[in-house]
Amino acid sequence: MQEFDMNETKGEENRSLLPKSLRRVRNVRVARSYSTWPGLTVATLFFVWWTCSVISGLVGSRGPTLDMNGDKYYDFDEVGSIVGEDQDVIGFDPRGVGATTPRADCFSYGGTYNGVGDDQARGDYHRTLFAATGQGIGLANSSSTALRYLDARAKTIAKLCAEKDSLSGDNSIFRHAGTPSVARDMISIIDAWDEWTSNIEESLDFDSADLDPSDEKESYDNSQEAGLETKSKLLYWGFSYGTLLGSTFAAMFPDRVGRLVLDGVVDADHYVAPIWRESQRDADKVWSSFFKYCQEVKSACQFYRVNDQIVDIEERFKSVIENLKENPISLVLKDTQTPFLMTYSDVKLLIFGALYAPIQGFASVAQLLDNLERSLGDWFEFTPTPLSYDLKPVCEHAQPRWSYPNDAQRAILCSDKKYPLNHTFPEIESMFKDLEAQSTFADAWMSLMIQCSGYNIESIDPPMQWDNHPSHRQKPIKTAFPLLYISNSADPVTPLIAGVKMATKFVDAGFFEQQSEGHCTIAAKSRCTIEKIRAYFREGKVPDPPKLKGKGTDFLDGDWEICPTNEWPWHEYQPSAQISNEIDAAEIGRIDAWGSIRDAFAQIDIWGARGSKKFEIVL
């Protein structure tokens, strides 16, 4: 495990996320193919941690596109406030992502970047050009030919990736980027960490005076009394895709499970299928709540009109959208004098993004719809021009390596599929119709689903065989410590049923539901949820497994613990601004920390499903 210069990987703004006295950055070299280990071919993982003490835990990603340098949700101070400030918090870039090398990049070929690797600036320019040629297609149902063109474009990129893979040969990262390999990498991180901290007092380079000895001793003693001996085991908090990674780890290494919180749960059975048919079953529930909350707060919701009932708001929304389908809005963005056409697809993607984070997103959507209904086109001309429209970083070749877009999501999601998306267009069209029958946002979700069409790069010698995959195992898996699954009542892409179902795949796995809308429980503050997660990590308290009724085949027919939420759209919970005898300062700190992570998560393009949007409404 080697330390390296932060300046090579992080900008000043992101480096400030961790206290200087406690910030640490490391590389870990791992086998690119564990079946040939030991060998000379390696991958180099990048990770950052917040150092405080005696117990360490990994923070899992929310999607394969996210990286430690570029995504601000890795504010380890805030995570530490929730799980315990006496615990180390580690985050890492999975294979192909961010500062981990080699990068999964289908567009960059030949040349060098600062003397190393491919010409990423040239590749990014080609990526931008290809993206621009597809901007006019819109969402899958925006025209009679849109889905066909989206499928053709996906197959084109798949062909490009195949050529890059062929040039790289046995060293290709595309052949070794699957989730089982990432899960095995987590073992490497744990082992490297244990070795490095074997003599913690000599290894940690910070002044012990920075810590209150009495606080440190009390926390350590409490951990020991609770039986939290987790050396050589994984403590992990995974969101969205991170839950699939956590479930995979638990299936591969059940004896190395220390604590696993899996939040916003991916259904392993559907994940390996060509199309995730059930992932949006709760999306329309989230969107329906917009009209309910808007009507409840009345004039605080900018799209509300006097005496509106819920149905009135819904009907006016439908009218606005139908009008936009026929009449796109011509704009000139004032900050750069860039001509721009706002379409139905643009607005639909913005609304879909708001479903992930209703606390922040619904107010913005209300303002957007209000201006559309009033035909206030001039308002939109003051929205910022997308950064992707600026060629200066490309021309100056000034961006750090990790900041360039990559194809890690495609490499991971597509190579993970047991049943590839190698179908005829009529078959794909039929799949899309099935999605449309489930959700009105199927058109937005299809932009993610279609990317695996024609992708034929197979994982070579993955460290987990199909028979051991959690979607294939017939009997519940016994782990060294029970897992904890958590779901929202209505999540746009990881429905409640998936959390219940996955909890039944592991012996004694706990489960609880947070009564809120949005993607992952981090979408809203809940004192109940915060304390349950903290108690799980620190005291080993596991909520009860879900108790299914009847034959146990209906995963929504059962009983489980439920946590109420303390906030909802247009009703943010701010206990630090209130006087309350029921909440002590420490709990207020944890609630505020949760809110900070919530706000950061709201800015992230999870799964890349919103990546085709052309602009962002900033309010």
Can you tell me about this structure?
The protein is an alpha/beta fold and 619 residues long. Among the domains are: 120-169 and 405-452, no CATH class; 283-389, no CATH class. It is 38% helix and 13% strand. The protein has helices at residues 12-15, 76-83, 120-133, 146-168, 179-196, 200-203, 213-225, 241-252, 268-271, 283-297, 310-326, 344-356, 358-373, 377-380, 392-396, 408-415, 425-438, 442-449, 496-503, 527-539, 585-601, and strands spanning 2-3, 23-31, 42-50, 55-59, 87-93, 234-239, 257-263, 329-333, 338-342, 484-490, 510-517, 547-548, 558-559, 561-564. Strand 8 and strand 9 (338-342) form a beta hairpin. Helix 2 (76-83) crosses helix 21 (585-601) and helix 5 (179-196) packs across helix 8 (241-252).
Secondary-structure-based class equals alpha/beta
Which radius of gyration do the C-alpha atoms yield?
Answer: 24 Å
The oligomeric state of the chains shown is: single chain
Give a count of the beta strands, DSSP E runs of length 2 or more: 14
Tell me, rounded to a whole number, the average pLDDT: 81
| Tally of DSSP helical segments | 21
General form = globular
Estimated helix fraction = 25-40%
Largest sheet, in brief, is: 10 strands, mixed
Low-confidence stretches: 1-23, 37-41, 65-73, 208-227, 609-613, 615-619
How much strand? 5-15%
What distance lies between the first and last C-alpha atoms, to the nearest angstrom? 43 Å
Strand order, main sheet: write it out. 1-2-3-5-4-6-7-10-11-14
